[in-house]
Amino acid sequence: MKKTIILTVTLLAATVANAAGPKQELADTLHSYQLETVQVVSTRAAKKTPIAFTNISGEVLRQQNTGHDIPFLLLQTPSVVVTTDAGNGMGYTSLRIRGTDASRINITTNGIPVNDAESSQVYWVNMGDFASSLNSIQIQRGVGTSTNGAGAFGATVNMQTESIGSTPFVAFDMAGGSYASHKETLRFGTGLLGGHWGIQGRLSNISSKGYIDRAASNLNSYFLQAGYLGETTSVKFITFNGQQQTYMAWDYASKYDQQLYGRTYNPCGRMEDDATGNQQYYRDQNDNYHQQHYQLLLNQLLSRQWNLNLAIHYTNGKGFYEQYKAKKKLADYGLDEAATKAKSSLVRQKWLSNDFYGAVASVNYNNQHNLFATLGGGWNKYDGDHYGYVTWVKKPVDELKPQHLYYDNNTKKVDGNVYTKATYEFTKGVSAFADLQYRYVHIQMTGPADASSAKRKFSYDVNQTFNFFNPKFGVNYELSTSHRLYASYAITHREPVRTNFEHNIDAQIEMPRAERLNDLEAGYEYRNKHFSAGVNFYYMNYKDQLVPTGEIKLDKAVTRNFPRSYRAGVELIAAWMPVEWFRWDANATLSRNRVKDVTVNLEDMTTVEVIRGESPLAFSPNAMFNNIFTFRYKGLQAALISRFVGEQYLTNTGLREMMTKDEHGNTTYDTMMLKEHFTTDVDLAYNFSLKRVGLKDATFGLTFYNIFGALYDTNGWIAAQYRNDHGKIIAVNTWAPRDQEAAGFSPAAPFHLMARLSLNF
Fold it and tell me: Which of 303, 304, 388, 444 is the most buried (most CB within 10 A)?
């Protein structure tokens, strides 16, 4: 490992062994190297880009990949918080950066948008073991550079798939451990046939029972690419998929239910108790989805100064989740024509079928001296059908026809953008950066909504167009090879997503407004042979930010526009390697995250009150810290990894607890917080080779997670009501005893372990 490597590139490497995949040498020419990077260079930050970013190699990702979703592989990078519904990082997971949720993180693969066009989320469960097919990931914190797809309001995650290696190989990656978790991966490549043609692929299976009761997941996926690599031209066809079945665990359990039934209690799928009073759960309370991606990439070197990339893409997704719903109004499902107000338990399936396609392109210029410039853009279209069936009714009052359709709506979305950016070095060490983007978004939603989850029956009638201008400017000053100063200012916008429209239409309030962000960043980096460090200051000022209220409606988190909010903080990063066998890595984020003048509806649902002043933004810890000690001796490696995440509010009211009644009718108080937590992992690995039998290299590893058994929650929700108590706003629960039906928490697994073995031939 080079001693001078920047900390942000190597931070994650400290947790794993040195080798997990075959050496995939590219053709040894300048042209070939450029061709392999053209497809993402237009949207990535470079050495002189005045923003905070982290690069992570594909080798590092594979080394620590035991089946966890990609968010957990980014856990040791600055300002990152992850959630896990199953409790152990498999199945449904999500990512927050600087407190911003996943819908505000722009994610691309080879410059192609990955965020779901409606929710702006990335459902990593549909991309099982995708990390095994990546060449690198770049995380840009803040607005970042112009890219394609969703607006970046907290960060950008730019993924590049692996290159076709020059030599043939076969590799087997296996892992297994707690909660019956296991992963099996076969990777293979032909090398370059005839010096130009190659095929490379992967087959993966991941399965886990999960820490939470019944939170099992079964993920099958593949990745396949075929391509031509010439001196000036590269053409690749890529297809990859994800097939998943996951038992639902996203409702979360209240603290009271966890006291009654245990910390791993999962309320999803609960049916009526049997005759003896035993709890019953619906065995098919599953999420089922298949997602198929196709990409055709053309990279062309036009000259030593000019290159071009063009990509067309198509993604098809289809699936459903099935639910047992106890004692529901049949009229909400179109099964009570006589208006008898009858209720019955039933089984429903909520389907989604969608198509997403488009093209992205860029032209890049590098005069090999002091100017790098890009002209790029993209056009993408989404067409998604949402519909639901009732498949069984316990006590019907109307005849239930096969596949009874009870709602059916459609969303169409067009997203287009064009951008130009340039980095110009005025004099040695001093450069300026400018980035101008125009983005066009049109959203159309039609058809009846799912009335069973809403306050009332309604149909979508949304037809909105957004035009955004997103400028970015910055300067970079390299005082010497060891010192760098930078500063930047950016403006960006983001359109509302599907749930924003749903909740506002349901509540019969004004339509959600687009968000605006002004992002100011400034930083300093130092590095020498044995030590590197950096500091980045940021101030993110939002107008009309759509902020989670902590409530859950229509099976999704409720958000509302808040006129004024901000995030201000400092990110610190350092690495010290005094000797070859020892390395110390650390990073920390200290921040202040506030929303001003929060409006709440009182429990009578007609009176509106304003909580004046600043309140903490939900899901935004004020302090985060990562520390890694790494020891290496020949093929042996050991790492001690510690992580701290500060407390998080579940609403934007600044209220820490909710008044409620216990099972005896006495007044008590329940938390509205995710408490702070500190965890420690231990990673051990040994790398070796047996070339005489064709084994190029092998790695055996063992990771012990959360060795001190910290009990904490990664996520939660609150559906409190509010009351004016002698001029003071308090949160109350009138739904059920304690916090039942008013709160939910997602516990993380205590001590657990995973073993891994990689064999590369």
Answer: 388
